[in-house]
Amino acid sequence: MNSKASHPSQAPGRRPEQGLPPGAAAGILGAINPFVNIETATGGSVDLIMTIDAVVVGAKGTKIVAAFQDVATHVHIDYMEQLPLYWMASAQLKGAISPNQAWTRYRSDDDAFHLNVNEDITLAHDSGGWSVPSYDCEQYSVWIGFGLGTAGDVRPAFAVDCSPMDQRQVTVAGYELYRSNGAESLGSPVAASQDHWTLIPGESYQLAFDASGVGLLRAVSAS
After folding, report:
1. Annotated domain spans of the chain
2. CB within 8 A of 85, min separation 6: which ones?
């Protein structure tokens, strides 16, 4: 059940070690149709998954499979339009089938909002990061992070486990395409050993797989 928020050229495998450059996040939604074109010369299909990479201060996060894409010839993805980025939080009661989750659209790392995941737990975010309230950790498991999708169907993409009264900074590093290992499902953790390519939000890219299946990502003009 979703609760609405209230508002007060890269080589294979490379990933950013820090968040977006100063001022970059604020301009993300102003970018003109950032895309990734993907093509393959392998003669077969290349199977990919989409997730989010983020920088977490003082903790580790988990990348989660949020979407799939098969590439048999050529694929064009307007990734920020087809898979918009959302702040996301989740709280699962012990013994419950599924968690309660809430989300709000990401605009910058400094977004200010509250997410009510249930009647007992409301998480806040501002320029200082996330503020987690007191809650019964024997009864609930809680995480914060990011999701991808549309307003009515947002899938978890990056999660950081929480404890009561946590103060946590989580900033976007980029969208990430991973080569599928064939065993993933939506919502499963991403295997870190797989080939992957990072898309900095707002930038456009060409990802080409040669006949041997090696993928090379390069930045291109969105014009």
Report:
1. 2-8+33-220
2. 52, 105, 106, 146, 147, 148, 172, 175, 201
Q: What integer is the mean pLDDT of 119-135?
A: 97
pTM of the predicted protein model: 0.84
127 has a pLDDT exceeding 70: yes
Distance CA 65, CA 87 (A): 16
58 backbone dihedrals φ, ψ, rounded to 5°? 80, 10
Per DSSP, what are the bridge partners of residue 38? 75, 207
The DSSP call for residue 170 is E
Per-residue pLDDT band for 223 (boundaries 50, 70, 90) equals low
On the 0-12 / 13-18 / 19+ scale of CB atoms within 10 A, 193 is: exposed
Q: Using one digit for the tens of pLDDT, what is the confidence trace for 176-201?
A: 999 999 999 999 999 887 899 999 99
Q: State both tokens at 116.
A: 């009510």
Side chain identity, residue 9? S
